[in-house]
Amino acid sequence: MSKDFKVIQHMADMLKQGATLTELACPACASPLFRLKTGQLWCAKCKKRVVRLKEGETGEANTKGQLVNLENTVLKKIQAVEMKMREEEDSEKLEKLTSTLDSLLGTLEKLKKLKS
Ligand SMILES: [Zn+2]
């Protein structure tokens, strides 16, 4: 029995046991990973459990994407406040707008720090 055949046999057994094939690749041998019923990732070729590195990477990318969205929202708010400030002549309202702008700028700074 060839080594490859054994691997295929093992894969078939895993599928029979309810494991599903994922689009993720094993970091060690690049063969497709299985997801066991327990949720763990398994490489049929290495015959060992694989830590979810790839998924972690996508997770981080998603977080960064969300931060960019949030940053754009804050920037739009800052522009809106700025427009109001230009037209506002009531000093009390102007003060409120200034403090709003101040907290928005603080948020923007925090977002930039999180992104880096
Ligand atoms: Zn492997």
List the helices and strands and how they pair.
Blueprint: H1 3-16, E1 20-25, E2 32-35, E3 41-43, E4 48-50, H2 53-87, H3 91-115
Antiparallel strand pairs: 1-2, 2-3, 3-4
The structure holds zinc ion.
Zinc ion (ZN) binds at residues 26, 28-29, 31, 43, 45-46.
* Total domain count: 2
**Uncertain segments of ≥5 residues (pLDDT<50)?**
54-59
Number of strands: 4
Number of helices: 3
Largest sheet: 4 strands, antiparallel
Identify the strand order in the major beta sheet. Answer: 1-2-3-4
Q: Span between N and C termini?
A: 52 Å
Question: How helix-rich are the residues, as a percent range?
Answer: 55-70%
Which molecules other than protein and nucleic acid are bound? Answer: zinc ion
Mean pLDDT: 84
Question: Which structural class fits the helix and strand makeup?
Answer: alpha+beta
Strand content: 5-15%
- The helix/strand series, from N terminus to C terminus, equals HEEEEHH
Rounded Rg: 26 Å
Shape estimate = rod-shaped
Model description:
About 5% of the residues have low confidence. The chain folds into two domains: 49 residues, no CATH class; 60 residues. It is of the alpha+beta class. It contains three helices and four strands. 64% of the residues lie in helices and 14% in strands. α2 packs antiparallel against α3. It has a four-stranded antiparallel β-sheet with strand order 1-2-3-4. The N and C termini lie far apart (52 Å). The radius of gyration is 26 Å and the shape is rod-shaped. The protein binds zinc ion. The site of zinc ion has 7 residues, from loops.
